[in-house]
Amino acid sequence: MKRKHILIILCLSILLSCKTANQNARLESKEKKEWIFAFKSQTFYECLINSGAIVEKDASPSLNFQILGDLNILSQINSIGKNYSKIINDRSTWFKGGDLEGYKSITNGCLFFFESKELDSIANLEYLNMKLTNKKNQ
Length: 138
Description:
Oligomer: single chain
Distance between the termini: 46 Å
Number of strands: 0
Largest sheet: none
Structural class: mainly alpha
Strand content: under 5%
């Protein structure tokens, strides 16, 4: 009888530990998605601003900083946004004739970069670097 109770307790313990590990993995996955989205969103914002787009009364930078939480990362993001805005300016199609002459495709260019595998790779790498730095500092 005692063995049966011990076996039941052991099985329940294993099941509960699996459930806890699964919940932790889900929380980590959600945190990673939010962090990467904030990184990419802030890069998009910096791309727009550095391309000359006017953005007023947008709380996005503050919200992104709450998730990213590091001024060094924001500095890196600013550099990435600036660099890509230069690429957009170099590649940008200037519309000849008609109502759009002199305009550039800033939003589409920044949005293209937001959706790119290149930015996904950068954001994932920065997330891993952030996690490693946090582990070292603990």
